[in-house]
Amino acid sequence: MAYSIGIDFGTGSGRAFLINTENGEIVEQFIKTYTHGTIEGELDGQKLPQSYALQNANDYMEVIEEGIPAILAKTQIAPNEIVGIGIDFTSSTVVFVDENMEPTHNKEGFKDNPHAYVKLWKHHGGQDEADVLFKTALEEKNRWLGHYGFNVSSEWMIPKIMEVNNKAPEVIAESAYIMEAGDWIVNRLTDQNVRSNCGLGFKSFWEADTGFHYDLFDKVDNDLSNIVREKVEASVVNIGETVGKVSQTMADKLGLSPETQVSPFIIDAHASLLGIGSERDKEMTMVMGTSTCHLMLNKEQHKVPGISGSVKGAIIPELYAYEAGQTAVGDLFEYVAKQTPYDDVKEAKLRDISIFELLNEKAAKLYPGESGLIALDWHNGNRSVLSDSNLKGCLFGMGLHTKHEEIYRAYMEATAFGTKMIMQQYEGWHMEVDHVFACGGIPKKNTLLMDIYANVLNKRVTVIDSEYAPAIGAAILGAICGGAHTDFSEAVKAMKEPVLYTVDPQPDKVEIYKKLFNAYQSLHDLHGYKKASIMRDVAKLM
């Protein structure tokens, strides 16, 4: 019997899964909330700007150092039966480390420096730097920018490096290496210094044929090219290949065999495609959680405005992987739930149900458009298709009689409308969508939301029976690099998660949502394009 370990690092927690490579059975799992959580608001009493979202890299190693020994102890599986380990991670989550791969924030004199900490994907402190990169790329007529959706996001690695170099050059000077957190975990496991083609290709202005785009870096910052050459550049390992074996030191610490192979890291949402078995074109996959990623595969490389990149072989060899996304989905629903009136909170408590269950129950009784509300779901900026992290959300059509469940439903509909904007963008640039997959805890638990999505998109939505598709996908990569399966098709077929349910669109609801979407699109274009400065400037008033 052969097993693989898939380790999934999310925004708030890390998960280690032991998977049977023959049938995809989850044999054991370990889940740990990060000790330090997300560092927002303040760091050791020091106030942080609203745009900051930091983490402590030590939390990630705790997941591995506690999780792997725990699942081995519970299962009593022999170490030599575990053939491989796969890692998935949120992206772009950037780590600054010394020559020994120790995080810079652990070093003397840097514990109170926010720029020494991990910059989480939703850290937007480098927006000014992103703007400079974008403006310069346009001025230089860098046509390759089309491979990144003709945009530059403050979420990405290079703006974050520029931000640190501008605001805390001492951190850059102290850091021997800069990399995606997923690469860092792989390097800690193997005692190597390598990079994944998936992480570099989507978030770092790197392409397999040309390498890094130093032509742009030289134009925006005198130091940037040297920083990237000396601290970011390293040997690149492609998805589907193996980085190498677990080091003897880590094998001893974790209770693994030193023959265990380690896969290069893959972006968490991208791993989901493997976990659910989506490996063909014309299938759009929604990986829904705190945020949502919308992924597609295609044989050709198209320049699609507003997407986050297109990288060959980043998920499936020989196919281009495309990523778009929404920055607030689960976060947005949680925000609305926290504003629930006291009477509803009391009712939920008396009935022994959650606030979400109560809101879903009440929202389900409303028919589309009944409330007259339209929301713009930009509470954490807009990733696609506007690519503007400074935009702010808003709600239109409120009256004195507006009920909280109406607001909740309006935000659910807004995320569906935002998804339709993305789907239309794909289809408008020669990437037809025939079928939509959804995975994650949200679609698994919220059938009302999926009904809304099916009718807004006018597509069948297939919901996968897994909250942990990224971890399964990572385990599939571990199984491939460990030799348990010879290729992707074989591994995916054996280990993918099953279908939970499907939702088909209903013609009467589809027609209503066409009208509501037109209203959403009008507001989207007005406040996202024509009057976007208003939405951006609101944040600057504080």
What labels describe this entry?
542 residues; alpha/beta; seven-stranded mixed beta sheet; 20 helices; 26 strands; 41% helix
Q: Estimate the mean pLDDT confidence.
A: 94
Low-confidence runs of at least 5 consecutive residues: none
Strand percent estimate: 15-25%
Give the distance, in angstroms, between the N- and C-terminal Cα atoms: 60 Å
Number of beta strands? 26
Radius of gyration: 23 Å
Structural class: alpha/beta
- Number of contiguous helices: 20
Oligomer: single chain
Shape: globular
Main beta sheet strand tally, sense and closure: 7 strands, mixed
Give the fraction of residues assigned to helices. Answer: 40-55%
Plain-language structure description:
This protein is an alpha/beta fold. The strands form 8 sheets. Strands 1, 2, 3, 7, 15, 16 and 17 form a 7-stranded mixed β-sheet that branches. It has a 7-stranded mixed β-sheet with strand order 20-21-19-18-24-25-26, sandwiched between helices. The chain has a two-stranded antiparallel sheet with strand order 4-5. Strand 2 and strand 3 (26-33) form a beta hairpin. Helix 2 (127-139) packs across helix 3, helix 2 packs across helix 7 and helix 14 crosses helix 16 (447-457). The model has no long low-confidence stretch (mean pLDDT 94).
What can be said about this structure in brief?
By secondary structure, the chain is α/β, with parallel strands linked by helices. Helices cover 41% and strands 20% of the residues.
